[in-house]
Amino acid sequence: MKMTNEIPYKIYLEEQEMPREWYNVRADMKKKPAPILNPNTLQPVTLEELSGIFCEELAKQELDDTTPYFSIPQEILDFYKMYRPSPLVRAYCLEKQLDTPAHIYYKFEGNNTSGSHKLNSAIAQAYYAKNQGLKGVTTETGAGQWGTALSMACSYLGLDCQVYMVKCSYEQKPFRREVMRTYGARVTPSPSMNTEIGRKINAEFPGTTGSLGCAISEAVESALSQDGYRYVLGSVLSQVLLHQSIIGLEAKAALDKYGIKADMIIGCAGGGSNLGGLISPFVGEILRGEANYDIIAVEPASCPSLTRGVYAYDFCDTGKVCPLAKMYTLGSGFIPSASHAGGLRYHGMSSVVSELYDQGLLTARSVEQTEVFKAAQTFARIEGILPAPESSHAIKVAIDEALKCKETNETKNIVFGLTGTGYFDMVAYQKFNDGEMRDYIPTDEELRKAIDTLPKIN
Amino acid sequence: MKMTNEIPYKIYLEEQEMPREWYNVRADMKKKPAPILNPNTLQPVTLEELSGIFCEELAKQELDDTTPYFSIPQEILDFYKMYRPSPLVRAYCLEKQLDTPAHIYYKFEGNNTSGSHKLNSAIAQAYYAKNQGLKGVTTETGAGQWGTALSMACSYLGLDCQVYMVKCSYEQKPFRREVMRTYGARVTPSPSMNTEIGRKINAEFPGTTGSLGCAISEAVESALSQDGYRYVLGSVLSQVLLHQSIIGLEAKAALDKYGIKADMIIGCAGGGSNLGGLISPFVGEILRGEANYDIIAVEPASCPSLTRGVYAYDFCDTGKVCPLAKMYTLGSGFIPSASHAGGLRYHGMSSVVSELYDQGLLTARSVEQTEVFKAAQTFARIEGILPAPESSHAIKVAIDEALKCKETNETKNIVFGLTGTGYFDMVAYQKFNDGEMRDYIPTDEELRKAIDTLPKIN
């Protein structure tokens, strides 16, 4: 522990203090997340089956719920050193503005060209693919954050990268597309005419602007139909949470360095990759009876899988080609309202996060987007970072909690995850600046309909 | 000095190691830059005259060529702590890719929401304005980098910020505009109907998309016509170089910490704010006879003020309302070809940098933009940062020099300034990705014509 009373604005770990292992929180869970199922047999998927879709090492990581630590290969550590450690920032200016006795810290993952934490898993997934001698990987991307991260990782390793980008994003977000192309990725608007499923959808729905579900199906088909290719995914999976544990491990090391004990950990939750990664080592301490933390998952009111979904087996993709997972879900047919501005639009939630939630190890809260953008603006103006809409969900609740501390006069240590920057989200910010942003909360009837699309195996 | 042989990927200074003074290189110059002139009297401008345009403390800094160090006020130091120190990065991956014995370092100024080094001076200028009890500041912006930085600084301090944005940029770069608006700035497309000069230009040239020169004139008029307002500028001025010396001071402190002696310092040069700031402390050592460095300014072949301009008194703005400066210039009537993609399009060069260049303390090189974007792409793919087109001029020459070291087998320490990120420059990247980018070198005849616009006072 550092012998200083003065906590700097930003805590950077030294290179030799950076974690050299990922932490697998499943190993410390007495009740494990339910196994993922083969969509054809509805039986727990085997390593062999999974190795057809993912490269072998990743398939192993996906199925391993007992090994607590995985060594991070040196090549990945070297890549991490280019943009990590990410700073743990003490939000002195925000605290002053809120006039709160709380101490607010945020782990900022946006200082890299992908603009988010996604790079942490992209490099891992690309590395194992390369290491297995594969030629390339395929994936889908919606807004483009994950696609950008994967393009960067593949370009660094000399791996081919094929991205199916939801057609409306491809057309409306040309800048993200160009970043991917600059990194050498082949970006195809989905549905395309390259795949059977794409041709089928184009024939059935002429002029469709695509969906994430369709893009996943095209990416999977494309991987399966090319020699030396595998499919990769940027969230939801347990392997992704494993890689993202680097966020929480670094955050904890930075806190420990200054003898700070967090009281509350807050993260935004879409598929769960950031939240799961941030909270893993802290949850591990709870599970081992070593410490206690209030952990809060924040999701959009327009896509409330934890707060209004059901805990059941569901398809991970609309095309129903991927394994099924038991998770908090709104049903794979659920599509958030078009007025919803940012990411966090996945119908389900990581099965690890879902199981932790079900066991009461974390609570969840849903927030409306105009409030989220108001928090984003406050934060941008006073802390100097323009946050991604996704990350701003966590900011909103961190501010709420800091204001509660003001009322109760408690000096809590609040830690939240600032997953990324909003430079490619200015269309949403413009709507907010122009006062044209609207909230939308799905009705019970809408949710019931979507939940009716759940497979009848529960 | 740190007792380690291992130089980390990124050298971060600790908070207590951060510079607390700016360095004014003019103090160590035996032959000083020529004084700036009042455009009406053509006599050296007085403090009183200058204080009508700039706030008083900044006017003092502008005219002071003898004080070597200026204390950085605590409020500015606190703001700096939010995004500084910026890392000095060892480009291990680039070195490996180039297979060069050279050691390459870059000082990365892009890790803040303005995306560039401009914030270093924006906060200083906003602070002194606030401190003088002013209500607000006015400025112009082309692509929007400076306008964004100033908006951030003003929003932090609670100062009104009025930005005249060149109309074609306002329309073509809505995202930059929205970032400024998110920070509460009032952004007006220029020429506007708010000012006399704007109305005049709109009447004379209906449908004009504006120019930087016109936007400057509108911003100055606007400041002069409102009580409690002053005009601020993001480059060229000596006060800006003073604030930007933080870049060089941090870089030098980081090198010293690991006992590294730079052999070569490379920076891109438009108005000179980044280059001047980066090289100041190193040039100071040369001037005091303490060390020697090869210093290279890199400019676009399409706007070659140092390599093909003349050293003479010229107008700093097209509207001819600002003081005249002696500088390397292409003539205030010079406008780079429309095919020129990035910034670095100013017709002149900081009078400090110009005088240092004239004294032979630095050399200059011009490079064509397709080569610059090729270097940018190489760098992005291997170092993981998507650079701004401006910064990529320095990357191009750093790579050239590293390859020369490979031929001669010399282990030189090359330091270059990576001023910013290219997230808002994807239109230019797209042109490059599509193979549609063209080079343009002005003919001697074109340059002669522009240089003919110089005032006849030299």
Q: Can you describe this structure?
A:
The structure is a homodimer of 458-residue chains. Helix content of chain A is 42%, strand content 16%. Chain A is built from 18 helices and 15 strands. The first copy, chain A, has helices spanning 47-53, 56-63, 74-83, 92-98, 119-131, 145-157, 167-172, 174-182, 196-204, 212-224, 238-257, 273-287, 305-308, 351-358, 369-383, 389-408, 426-433, 444-451, and strands at residues 10-11, 21-23, 69-71, 88-90, 103-108, 136-141, 160-166, 186-190, 229-231, 264-268, 294-300, 310-315, 324-329, 363-367, 413-418. In chain A, helix 12 (273-287) links the parallel strand 10 and strand 11 (294-300). The first copy, chain A, is globular, with a radius of gyration of 21 Å. In chain A, 59% of the residues are buried.
List strands and helices in order, with pairings.
The structure is a homodimer of 458-residue chains.
Chain A: E1 10-11, E2 21-23, H1 47-53, H2 56-63, E3 69-71, H3 74-83, E4 88-90, H4 92-98, E5 103-108, H5 119-131, E6 136-141, H6 145-157, E7 160-166, H7 167-172, H8 174-182, E8 186-190, H9 196-204, H10 212-224, E9 229-231, H11 238-257, E10 264-268, H12 273-287, E11 294-300, H13 305-308, E12 310-315, E13 324-329, H14 351-358, E14 363-367, H15 369-383, H16 389-408, E15 413-418, H17 426-433, H18 444-451
Parallel strand pairs in A: 5-15, 6-7, 6-9, 7-8, 10-11, 10-15, 11-14
Antiparallel strand pairs in A: 1-4, 2-3, 4-5, 12-13
Helix pairs in contact in A: 1-2, 2-11, 3-5, 4-15, 5-6, 6-8, 9-10, 11-12, 15-16
